[in-house]
Specification:
It is a single chain. With 241 residues, the protein is of the alpha+beta class. The protein has two domains: 68 residues, no CATH class; 127 residues, Immunoglobulin-like. The protein has four helices and eleven strands. Strands 3-11-10-6-7 form a five-stranded mixed sheet, with no helix packed on it. The protein has a three-stranded mixed sheet with strand order 1-5-8, with no helix packed on it. A hairpin with a 2-residue loop joins strand 10 and strand 11. The longest helix is centred in the first third of the chain and has 30 residues. The termini are far apart.
């Protein structure tokens, strides 16, 4: 009795070479070509897969094609932080302009040996409270260092003057009008030191350069005012009786 399995195998080979059935031969040939193409595709894909595995293409660094495929198939992830936030090293902060070297501040006050400015000295006229008409009282011009340090001042006689004024401020007499004097007197005055310059007033009136006739000053209330160059004293009352 024939083997049915052998008969099916012989029939299958014959069917491949000589398709037999109710359909036309072209239909069977198209089916067989489609099956053959599918088999070739499966076989070819398996071969490529084997080559990729052998060459390390599944993530190895030697297959740029595999890397490109992986990067293409992988969805783009979140950008790295350094791509979003610039590096602080690349940020240039403005540099403050260089501050010019400041000169040292001047001394807070007068220094020892400085000239005696007008604000460093005091001027005063000393006189008797009252004098008789026609008498020759002695008047004093007093210069004092009122600062806290020694200072230098020129005390020449031609820079000194005492004048007599009436109640309306009219000048009646000046110590340099008729008997001008001169000297060369530069001194260092210690703090609080006073220098006294006495002079005698004749009791007569005078004009600068002694241009007018001199007369006795009439009894009344007057003031004396002293000066050392540009420094002027306050008024000192004087009564002529």
């Amino acid at each position: 009795m024939p083997d049915p399995a052998a008969s099916r195998r012989r029939t299958t080979v014959l069917d491949v070479l000589h398709p037999v059935g109710p359909l036309s031969a072209a239909v069977y040939w198209r089916r067989r070509l489609m099956v053959l193409a599918l088999l070739l595709a499966v076989v070819g894909g398996g071969g490529w897969l084997g080559i990729a595995l052998l060459t390390g293409g599944s993530g190895g660094s030697g297959d740029p094609g595999g890397s490109a495929s992986a990067s293409t198939s992988t969805a783009p992830g979140t950008p790295a932080l350094e791509r979003v936030v610039p590096s602080l090293a690349s940020v240039q902060t403005p540099t403050a302009p260089a501050t010019p070297t400041a000169e040292p501040p001047p001394p807070a006050g007068p220094q020892p040996g400085d000239p005696c400015g007008d604000d460093m000295i005091g001027i005063e006229v000393r006189a008797p409270g009252g004098v008789s008409q026609g008498s020759a009282p002695t008047l004093e011009l007093v210069v004092a260092n009122i600062s806290s340090v020694p200072c230098v001042r020129t005390l020449d006689l031609e820079l000194q003057e005492i004048v007599l004024l009436d109640g309306q401020g009219t000048r009646l007499w000046g110590s340099n009008d008729c008997q001008p004097e001169s000297s060369d007197d530069v001194r260092t005055l210690a703090p609080g030191e006073q220098v006294v310059f006495p002079l005698v007033w004749s009791g007569l009136s005078s004009e600068p350069a002694c241009a007018e006739e001199r007369t006795a000053v009439q009894p009344g209330q007057y003031v004396l005012r002293g000066r050392l160059d540009t420094k002027v004293s306050g008024d000192t009352p004087l009564t002529v009786q």
